[in-house]
Amino acid sequence: MHAVPGIRECAIVSTCNRTELYASGEHASITALQEWMHDWHGARRGEFREYLFTLQRRMAVVHLLKVTSGMDSMVLGEPQVVGQVKQAWQSAQEHQTLGTILDRLFQHSFQTSKLVRSETGIGHNPVTLPFAALKLAHQIFGDVNRLSALMIGAGEMIEDCARHFSSQGIRAMTICNRSPERAKLLAEQFNATPIGLDGLGETLADHDMVIACTGSSTPLVDRDMIRKALARRRNQPMFVLDLSVPRNVDPGVGEFGDVYLYTVDDLREIAEHGHRKRTEALDAATKIVDGQAEAFDRWLNLHAAGETLKSLRHRAFDERDKLLDQARRELAAGRDADDVLARFGHRLTNRLLHAPSMQLRRAAEITDEELMAAARKLLLDDPS
Question: How many CB atoms are closer than 10 A to CB 375?
Fold first, then answer.
């Protein structure tokens, strides 16, 4: 991507549901970038163009700030996306495709994300079932790092729960499934222990949390199994979560004083409440992003002014050095020193004033009052 004509800086952000190309350059071509992406993936030219969107300048800045802050995610406020954006930034750094502008933009997005998460409630409330499940477990047991969990099933919901629990550092996990092969396949992803359904009753007592989600039409966990497990645990509490429809856990299990039984409906209520709370925080987060985008705009303008001044100084020094060489040759040829100095000063003044003089003449010819006023303010310190 960095080799596309006109691209001076670039980075690629890739998450589970987005691929975004970030580029900066004086003559960067959006069409060239689209064609590059098609070529890279071996697609026909323009095949996916109707599905692409383009944001430039401030809109692109605002977009990245929102993405990094979790405001543009499928799950509002999700924390994983900031890590994925950091991976994109680090990858671009390693391949030396970042320059001053994009490097500053990405670091600015990380600062904005931290502000949004610390000053709003956008990431504070559970909005997914696995997140809600872990939140409940934390309320019951406190630190979840010392707990063990038994996952009954091996479908998508159990996999999501296992992934979320594993990412939060749970002590141990067991995957129980009717198919031992399927249990083993899932367990390998999370360093868990696989068992068949025939070992369910024996292993219940070894776990603080039980999460069930299978296609079984009858309960897999009954009162007698839980009663025996509690006796072996000496009545240490158990958190039992039934995410199945129909139920995989006998509702009577909840009558035991040391069992905290929740269903998928309980979790949905918690998740919906969390989503409402996060949505309420969205207005405050948007205000923070708008303010941070303005701050980046100010830096960008200062940076552009700095580059202009650098070019202006370089041109002035270049003209000076050329005329100094000419003056030295004249002195070496025996010319009068005062005459040489006078000619040097005259030539340097003409050279430095030539470009602005030409632009002012053109402005006068076309009656460009705005440019002429700016020139008076800039060159003569005249505010009128």
Answer: 17
Domains and CATH numbers, the chain: 9-119 (3.30.460.30), 129-272 (3.40.50.720), 303-380 (no CATH)
Q: What is the pLDDT of residues 2-43, one digit of tens each?
A: 999 889 999 999 887 789 999 998 776 888 899 999 999 999
CB burial of residue 283 (10 Å; 0-12, 13-18, 19+): exposed
Side-chain-side CA neighbours of residue 229 (13 Å): 27
What band does 383 get if pLDDT is binned at 50, 70 and 90? Answer: low
| Residue 238 main-chain phi, psi, to 5 deg | -125, 140
> What distance in Å separates the CA atoms of residue 345 and residue 336, rounded to the nearest whole number?
14
Q: At what angle do helices 264-332 and 129-141 cross, to 10 degrees?
A: 110
**How far is it, in rounded angstroms, from Cα 288 to Cα 294?**
10
Total residue length of the chain:
384
209, containing H or E segment:
strand 209-212
Query: What is the identity of the amino acid at 195?
Result: I
Catalytic residue among 10, 16, 176, 213: 16
Are residues 338 and 330 in contact, defined by beta-carbon separation less than 8 angstroms? no
* Distance from the Cα of residue 329 to its chain's centroid: 60
Strands 9-15 and 18-24: what pairing?
Answer: antiparallel
Give the Cα separation of 232 and 247 in Å (integer): 25
Give, for 309, the enclosing helix (H) or strand (E).
helix 264-332
Give the model's pLDDT for residue 125.
61
**Contact yes or no for 228/256 (Cβ under 8 A):** no
pLDDT range class, residue 266, cuts 50, 70, 90 = confident
306 pLDDT band (50/70/90 cuts)?
low
Is 176 in the active site?
A: no
Q: Count the neighbouring beta carbons within 10 Å of the beta carbon of residue 260.
A: 17
Distance separating alpha carbons of residues 6 and 126, to the nearest angstrom: 44
Can you give the pTM of this predicted structure? Answer: 0.59
CA 266 to CA 236: how far, in whole Å? 23
Nearest to 209 by CA among 174, 159, 180, 235: 174
Find the radius of gyration of the CA atoms of the chain.
33
Distance from C-alpha of 70 to C-alpha of 65, rounded to nearest angstrom: 9
What rounded mean pLDDT belongs to the chain?
Answer: 86
